[in-house]
Write a structure and sequence with these properties.
Structural class: alpha/beta
Largest sheet: 6 strands, mixed
InterPro entries: ClpP/crotonase-like_dom_sf, Enoyl-CoA_hydra/iso
Radius of gyration: 18 Å
Strand order of the largest sheet: 1-2-3-4-6-9
Pfam families: ECH_1
Organism: Planotetraspora silvatica
CATH superfamily: 2-enoyl-CoA Hydratase, Chain A, domain 1
Protein name: Enoyl-CoA hydratase
Mean pLDDT: 96
Number of domains: 1
Helix content: 40-55%
GO molecular function, one term: catalytic activity
Low-confidence stretches: none
Oligomer: single chain
Bound molecules: zinc ion
Distance between the termini: 36 Å
Shape: globular
């Protein structure tokens, strides 16, 4: 089964994460399949808008930290960061190399895709899943969608693509991180992180209708408008801020590796879920 599906619907490319049995947990195979799909959509002159979707009940439960297809130990053909392979390296060197490529580097690469991207979010959008929604230009969520970054439970100050204080007001970002609580779609809409909230059974129809409206605009106008807003965010410190926080993120991984079972402080999907349910 392919981990990412690609379909053309008129001027819209729909890219769908396809590991519903694991709530679309993102392993490296999925990361590179997404990159391949986005590359294909950018290269196709008939595609004006890209929709990123998740098959099944949930958009994405985050990075794969525990499925049978977890592949963090494998080499892939690197294309986001010009850094050496993480395989065969030890400790922080290996983690920094890997996360520079598959997390921060890939997300930055996708944020710069010169065509509008819409995240179509239902159910869970957690941690690494947030990164995928955040690299999209627009987020349309169904009423059952929720967002959370619970990695502070691992002693880590947020996911690798640290867009939190740009995706939401700083005080809300702190509450989001400090509690790890789920932010419902309605709340995400209120704070401006989500463009629209729609009933679950209307999600796909409304996203495609919005994509088609955008697709009527000229390609160059869309690409430049996107770049203009991205540049403004970077002038507000987003790019440099993320680099600074990436260092803190890796300090946390290294601290965990020194003082506990592993770089995730011994947490796995089961213990993360238990901690979330107990709160
Ligand atoms: Zn990390």
């Amino acid at each position: 089964m392919t981990v990412v599906r690609y379909e053309r619907r008129g001027p819209v490319a729909v890219v769908t994460m396809n590991r519903p049995e694991y709530r679309n947990a993102q392993n490296s195979a999925m990361t590179y399949a997404l990159d391949e799909a986005f590359y294909r959509a950018v290269a196709d002159d008939d595609v004006k808008v890209i929709v990123l979707a998740g098959e099944g009940g949930h958009f994405s439960a985050g990075h794969d930290i525990g499925t049978p297809q977890r592949d963090a130990h494998l080499s892939f053909d690197r294309r986001a960061a010009l850094w050496w392979d993480h395989v065969g390296k030890d400790g922080a060197e290996s983690r920094f190399a890997r996360e520079s490529e598959v997390y921060l580097g890939m997300c930055r690469r996708w944020r710069e895709i010169p065509k509008p991207m819409i995240a179509m979010v239902q159910g869970a959008c957690i941690a690494g899943g947030l990164m995928l929604a955040w690299v999209c230009d627009l987020i349309v969520a169904s009423e059952d969608a929720f967002f959370a970054d619970p990695v502070v439970r691992m002693g880590i100050p947020g996911v690798e693509y640290f867009a939190h204080p740009w995706a939401m007001p700083p005080r809300i970002a702190k509450e989001f991180l400090f509690t790890g609580d789920r932010m419902p779609a309605r709340r995400a809409y209120e704070i401006g992180m989500v463009n629209r909230v729609v009933p679950r059974d209307e999600l796909e129809g409304q996203v495609l209708a919005l994509a088609e409206r955008i697709a009527a605009m000229p390609r160059m106008g869309l690409a430049l408008a996107k770049k203009a807003v991205n540049q403004a965010e970077d002038l507000q410190g987003m790019h440099a801020g993320m680099d600074a926080v990436f260092g803190l993120h890796h300090l946390a991984h290294a601290h965990n590796a020194e003082t506990s079972a592993d770089s995730l402080a011994g947490m796995d999907p089961k213990s993360m879920k238990a901690a979330a349910d107990g709160s």
